[in-house]
Design brief:
single chain; mainly beta; 6-stranded antiparallel sheet; about 45% strand; elongated
């Protein structure tokens, strides 16, 4: 026969600080800095190219619907990818967020106007640059536990050659971690 122990908080004897809080939905909330939950998108190895200066979604495989457990947590957004740019070209990558499941009305997570991720090693060089990269952004704009929809966008910031995510460089994917405040 199984036993059930019902608790709201766990605290060490003699301490005034809670080590863990248990919410009514069953989620255990760690103290500040602890990971509450993590999700990962599908992994993708096929290439996606752009020659546009306008930011556009890279691919729907990278979309993540994420429901925060708490309204005052941090969301750590990471996009792990292989990137390639042709000579004299620069690529930008940003996370976008929407409150709609069809990703309509998505807006940039960061308000930075210049999000250069990759450029040719020697600007002015005609040779390509490539490598493994991580775009990491912290999202703190949520004020409740409504589902949010995240996806990375990219563009060709400068130059006339192609900017590409994935080119025989392994898998690319998105992760989101909710971190207790």
């Amino acid at each position: 026969m199984a036993s059930i122990l019902n608790v709201d908080k766990i605290r060490a004897t003699g301490s005034t600080n809670d080590a863990l809080q248990v919410q009514s939905n069953g989620f255990v909330i760690p103290k500040a800095g602890g990971i509450i939950q993590m999700q990962k998108s599908a992994s993708r190895s096929s290439a996606n190219n752009t020659t546009s200066s306008t930011y556009a979604e890279i691919h729907t495989d990278y979309r993540l619907a994420f429901t925060p457990v708490t309204a005052n947590s941090y969301l750590q957004l990471n996009f792990y990818f292989h990137g390639v740019v042709g000579g004299n070209t620069r690529m930008g990558v940003k996370f976008y967020v929407s409150t709609n499941s069809d990703y309509s009305s998505a807006t940039a997570v960061s308000s930075a106007t210049f999000d250069e991720v990759i450029r040719t090693a020697n600007h002015g060089s005609s040779s390509a640059s490539m490598g493994r990269f991580v775009l990491s952004e912290l999202y703190t704009a949520h004020t409740d536990t409504s589902t949010l929809y995240f996806t990375p966008y990219f563009n060709r910031l400068l130059g006339s050659n192609t900017a590409r995510v994935n080119d025989n460089g392994g898998f690319s994917y998105v992760t989101i971690m909710e971190i207790a405040e």
